[in-house]
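Deliverable D5.2: sample structural annotation.
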Amino acid sequence: MQKRLNQLTIALEQLEDEANALIDDLNDKVATRVLQPLFTKAKAQFPEHSAVLDYLNAVMKDMIQHVEAIVNDSDDAFRPSSVEVTPSRYAVNVLVSHPKDSGAPIVFEDLPTHLNLLGHVEQVTQHGTVMTDVSMIRAGALHRANGGYLLLEASHLLEHPYAWQGLKRALQSKHIKLSSLEQMLTLTGSLSLAPQAIALDVKVILIGEPDLYYELLELEPEFDAVFKIRADFHDEVPRSPESEQALVAKMADIIRSYQLLPFNQQAQAAIIDHLSLQAENQNKLSLHSDRLMQLLQEANRHATIRLHDKPVNELANLTNLVDARDVQRAIDDSEERSSYLKELYWEELKDGQQLIDTQGMAVGQINALTVISYADTEFGMPARLTALIQPNIGTGEILDIERDVELGGSLHAKGMLIMTSYLRALFSQHHALNFSASLAFEQSYAHIDGDSATLAEACALLSALADVPIKQSLAITGSMNQLGEVQAVGGINAKIAGFFDACCEQGFTGEQGVIIPKANVSQLMLREDIIQAVKNQQFFIYGVASINEALALLTDLPVIIRTKKGRFSKKSLFGKIVKRLETWEANDLPEQHAENATPLVSKAVAVKPMK
């Protein structure tokens, strides 16, 4: 009986095995029939990627083998988590995905750390154990830009430790290899994934200032081997119909991006003119995007306020809501916010603490046009420049007081030496230079640099030498070479505006104006009130090419008249200077020296008191 029971048990087990085999075979057939079309469709998308096809075949085979666990939901490996749709056993981490026919990727990484550039493997802590898997691999900027272009700020790249080394290593090896920064910085390595290196084909573009480029060339021996092409970009473009049209298109993009109100043609024209003012040249346009964006947004705000109380039916008929008035208000607001230091200077001028004459005449005294720059703002201020002569003392030496007290820079000193050389070449052939002189910017307590005051200094000195007064109603700026030719200077619009405001404060006489280099005329982008004053002949702007033209305007005298013997005529300005040199040599007694010394403001015409 027991033997019979054993036989029946064996038979039942055999039947069970056969049934299980039949069930497994049925499951395989059903699973194959269900999965085959799905995987065939998936594999059709990657016909040229053998690794992907092999992976899909392996996944299909594994799913068929474990179809019962999948159907019965009896294994956590085949069960989707609360945050994932795909079971962890078949999870795929797609690091980078570029749309089909989208072209080469262009990626800008604004935080180029080592991890953000090369990618990293994240980790989680569960019950005190650090864990990770393939789903925690994160792509870097090099992965996203692979096959295309990666743009980086050079200064930002150098701010982060190991970022430059990682980028350089990837570009040199042409492979992206994920490396744990923790392993690089610690002595004990931690268990982590080691993904296979990926072939790299990318163009990296570093954006930065020229000074940083030269520092990298000097300090990083391999820099020029990795980055072989250098390109300079201008922050200005020539003003032409094409460039104006391009900037209008850029404005349209900004308006659309920030959902601003439409700008009419007058508003666009006002912005274009302001871009020329920023470039300090009427034939160029500034390309400073941030300033343009700020101007558009502020003009939009003024238009919104102005149109707030208009009836709805009127707004419906308006297609262009922001006009030139709103643009000008935005410009005025910007200037007002940065005018604190300017207001302090002008308060001193109004209170009479800063001495400036805009009327009358004086010897050895001139109004020099200067510009004060701080942060991203500059404004013009007239400054009194004086020259004093000491007869029969020295051989034509000129004391630069600003330089001696270390308030003058090297460029200012260069201008003084050029002026000295010009005067020696001009008069030493006619007479020995038996004098010494001193030049100073009165009430100036800040550092002065640049050679834009060379022309003013030369005119003041020649006025003192000739004892001929010059007009205080004119202010002057310009660089000068050793031949007496006037050269262009910077900040011309701000300088003109500074003296114009001083004349406006003290009252117009119809004689005030400025003398500027002729080469700067094309850079004039003046305020509307200055333009109107010039049209009404209340204010004048003179462009000169030589110091002789400037002196003629300042003194109303002929500068050079030569006699038949080739000497300067006594009727000319230079002839008066030679005459005084001869007089100083003849009068060699100490008391006569004192009598013939040139006072600072001799023969000065009375000036009206400041209002």
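Annotation notes: The first strand starts at residue 106 and ends at 109. Residues 399 and 438 are 4 Å apart (CA to CA).
The annotation will be released with the project's public dataset once the embargo ends.
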